[in-house]
Design brief:
mainly alpha; 185 residues; 2 strands; elongated; Fumarate Reductase Cytochrome B subunit; single chain; 6 helices; two-stranded antiparallel ribbon
Length: 185
């Protein structure tokens, strides 16, 4: 097998990576925009879309995790791994672990908040999901800030991930990003 091929992610891994990347950026932007809107039909519509997208991201995250657990990702090229200071290698692994954890935590906390607040999630207006927690204004008040905290934490980790990819591309010029770009070699 071609050794160049062994250093690249599979086509499905790339598709899942870029779908989640676009979904997360869109969700974060929508969350920032809708949070300060006055109560209106537009705000209600955006909140419903946000919930649907959150459930979609959760489902894609499950698929991505199952794929990753069943298909080992390519190792970092040895030349890059050896050139990285230990703290960068630790940050690389910690950032990936943190993002994967938050791919699940953020939507699950959002689902819990929606349930506690008494606003069920009805995906695409058709499929009502079970309440994740019982309706409770007190519980909703406790959960609400955690959705924001976890979302901002995920956004921070995504920015670190993008900055590291840019550093490898622009400063190190090691073409590491090509492992996740379709058609790149």
């Amino acid at each position: 097998m071609n050794t160049q091929q062994n250093t690249r992610y599979s086509a499905l891994a790339m598709v899942l990576h870029w779908l989640l990347a676009l979904g997360l950026v869109g969700m974060f932007a929508m969350g920032l925009y809708m949070a300060d809107l006055p109560f209106s039909p537009q705000r209600l519509k955006l909140y419903n879309w946000h919930k649907w997208a959150g459930i979609t991201i959760l489902a894609l995250s499950v698929v991505r995790l199952v794929w990753r657990l069943s298909h080992r990702p390519p190792a970092l090229p040895q030349s890059i791994e050896w050139a990285m200071p230990k703290w960068q290698l630790l940050a690389f692994h910690a950032t990936h672990f943190g993002m994967y954890a938050l791919f699940f935590i953020v939507p699950l906390v959002g689902w819990a908040y929606s349930s506690a607040a008494g606003f069920p999630i009805v995906v695409f207006g058709v499929l009502r999901l079970p309440d994740f927690v019982p309706v409770s204004k007190e519980l909703a008040a406790l959960i609400k800030p955690w959705h924001e905290i976890t979302a901002f934490t995920l956004a921070g980790l995504v920015l670190m991930h993008v900055a590291a990819a840019a550093k490898h591309q622009v400063i190190d010029k090691d073409r590491l990003i090509n492992r996740m770009l379709p058609g790149s070699h």
